[in-house]
């Protein structure tokens, strides 16, 4: 019998998306990721997927890491009820491992908020007072010393692997070895609550170390090889949202000036689901080391609000409300009228619905119009970008690049992050978006603009010459210092600033600690 997490989703065969993924990616050049991108999702942050990453991780020879972020522009000081995962949202990461643009393996995450209204601690005005600790016996986050009883509003979650279709396939629950469900790391509130003793208020390093030690209890390794984490983290993306959506007036100067742009997401957090899975589960044929990845969130089809403070009642199957594969697709490529449609549909239908968004990218028209066709480098000039027949972008964002990231003998296409674990461009293994997965530190904005503007050298991959991949589109535009600005873009670098200590992005759970309400 299917679990709640595997209930049938509302039929979406007639609700298709498209190559919009490709076009959306073209816009990646100017935006960051998928923050508040669709009208119907803007008021539902817990279900709004901001970014998806996948890379080999610290156990790369045997495992693949996935990071799914939700809740855009999470304000660290948003108390007394901090952001949390929604119990009614089904969070999913999908894998296509045979090239048909349909999921073959799905990992589902379902959250539960524990709020015992009979506990004495529920009479507290603020849920997290007098402070948060880890109970090593009960294996849960609790109050300091446990003297005040259970911690109100703590969260746990279950994980399920579904082989086959996400609603009809075989469901297998993934369980921790010494606890009933996986714990969610608490919000980072500050010294005296989550960052150690009140005396830590004067030391950012001590506060950082104290929360790091507390949150580490939310990292769990299972007996069958999974490693998981869920909780708040620093949003690793940086972008000048105010400038981009104001006639693309990216600060402090013209588009892409290497002096750096204003980061509208500075000190913003996200809610992260991080999981490492055995590679044999998602890549059954070692001779075909390629697969596609995308993430979705879904809600029950119907909800009836409870009267007089009672809990609501849900009914019907799950309805998909957010989707993300490649970064940036829905913000700046898809038209407003279709943004919610994109979120509700599946990769297999992408080409049918919105091919025009990719082959005739609106962003190219916009850049040419705003910055001219012969502007100087100092003024941020843009050389003429081709406006028609952009089949190169279709490969980058929709089908995968032939001989690089495209699945051998693929029968389907759609918006997915493509992974080729055996990729070698001549100088050793290569990993990074869009050639092979997406790392936390990838500057996808810079890379996307390189493709959109038909530049020859992909600087993010050691000056890799992409003209051999797209000879029709990339012929003359090189990347010398004197080239137009779009061919040596160096702004919007992924945020590497720490939140008070030293983070190692090569170590699970990879993302830096969240910003504290105290910061």
Polypeptide structure, described:
With 519 residues, this protein is α+β, with helices and mostly antiparallel strands. The chain contains 10 helices and 17 strands. The strands form 4 sheets. Strands 3, 4, 7, 8, 9, 13, 14 and 15 form an 8-stranded antiparallel beta sheet that branches. A 5-stranded antiparallel beta sheet has the order 1-2-12-11-10. The chain has a two-stranded antiparallel ribbon with strand order 5-6. A hairpin with a 4-residue loop joins strand 5 and strand 6. Helix 1 runs parallel beside helix 7 (350-359) and helix 1 (20-27) crosses helix 9. The N and C termini lie far apart (47 Å).
Describe the structure in brief.
The chain is of the alpha+beta class.
Low-confidence spans? 1-32, 253-259, 374-381, 474-486, 488-497
Q: Share of helix among residues?
A: 10-25%
Distance between the termini: 47 Å
Largest sheet, in brief, is: 8 strands, antiparallel
- Record field, number of beta strands: 17
Q: What Rg, in angstroms, do the CA atoms define?
A: 23 Å
Give the CA-based shape.
globular
Oligomer: single chain
From the helix content, strand content and strand pairing, which structural class follows?
alpha+beta
Beta-strand percentage? 15-25%
Number of helices: 10
Please trace the helix and strand order, writing H or E for each element.
Answer: HEEEEEEEEEHEEHEHEEHHHHHEHEE
Rounded mean pLDDT score: 78
For this entry, give a set of tags:
single chain, 519 residues, alpha+beta, 5-stranded antiparallel beta sheet, 17 strands, globular, disordered N terminus
């Amino acid at each position: 019998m299917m679990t709640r997490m595997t209930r049938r989703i509302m039929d979406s065969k007639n609700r298709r998306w498209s190559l919009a993924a490709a076009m959306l990616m073209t816009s990646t050049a100017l935006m960051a990721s998928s923050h508040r991108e669709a009208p119907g999702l803007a008021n539902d942050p817990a279900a709004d997927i901001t970014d998806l990453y996948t890379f080999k991780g610290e156990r790369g020879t045997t495992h693949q890491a996935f990071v799914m972020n939700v809740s855009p522009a999470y304000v660290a000081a948003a108390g007394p009820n901090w952001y949390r995962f929604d119990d009614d949202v089904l969070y999913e990461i999908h894998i296509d491992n045979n090239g048909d643009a349909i999921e073959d393996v799905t990992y589902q995450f379902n959250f539960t908020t524990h709020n015992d209204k009979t506990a004495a601690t529920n009479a507290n005005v603020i849920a997290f007072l007098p402070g948060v600790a880890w109970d090593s016996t009960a294996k849960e986050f609790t109050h300091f010393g446990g003297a005040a009883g259970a911690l109100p509003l703590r969260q746990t979650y279950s994980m399920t692997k579904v082989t086959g279709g996400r609603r009809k396939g075989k469901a297998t629950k993934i369980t921790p070895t010494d606890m009933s469900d996986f714990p969610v790391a608490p919000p980072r509130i500050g010294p005296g609550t989550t960052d150690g003793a009140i005396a830590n208020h004067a030391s950012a390093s001590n506060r950082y170390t104290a929360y790091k030690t507390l949150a580490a209890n939310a990292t769990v390794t299972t007996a069958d090889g999974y490693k998981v984490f869920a909780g708040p983290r620093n949003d690793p993306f940086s972008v000048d949202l105010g400038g981009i959506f104001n006639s693309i007036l990216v600060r402090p100067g013209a588009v892409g000036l290497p002096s750096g742009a204003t980061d509208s997401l500075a000190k913003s957090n996200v809610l992260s689901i991080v999981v490492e899975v055995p590679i044999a589960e998602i890549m059954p044929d070692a001779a075909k080391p390629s697969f596609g990845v995308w993430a979705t969130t879904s809600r029950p089809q119907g909800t009836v609000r409870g009267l007089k403070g009672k809990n609501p009642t849900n009914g019907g199957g799950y309805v998909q409300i957010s989707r993300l594969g490649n970064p940036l697709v829905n913000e700046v490529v898809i038209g407003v009228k279709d943004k919610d449609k994109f979120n509700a549909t599946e990769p297999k239908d992408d080409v049918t619905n919105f091919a025009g968004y990719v082959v005739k990218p609106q962003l190219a028209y916009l850049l040419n119009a705003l910055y001219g066709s012969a502007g100087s480098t100092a003024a941020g000039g843009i050389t003429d970008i081709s406006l028609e027949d952009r089949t190169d972008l279709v490969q980058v964002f929709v089908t995968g690049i032939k001989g690089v990231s495209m699945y051998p003998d693929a029968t389907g296409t759609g918006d997915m992050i493509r992974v080729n674990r055996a990729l070698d461009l001549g100088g050793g293994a290569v990993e990074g978006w869009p050639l092979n997965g997406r790392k936390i530190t990838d500057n996808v904005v810079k890379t996307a603009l390189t493709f959109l503007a038909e530049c020859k050298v992909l600087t993010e991959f050691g000056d890799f010459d992409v003209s051999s991949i797209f000879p029709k589109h990339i012929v003359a535009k090189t990347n010398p210092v004197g080239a137009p600005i779009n061919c040596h873009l160096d702004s919007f670098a992924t945020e590497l600033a720490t939140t008070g200590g030293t983070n190692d992005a090569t170590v699970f759970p990879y993302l830096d600690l969240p910003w504290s309400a105290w910061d």
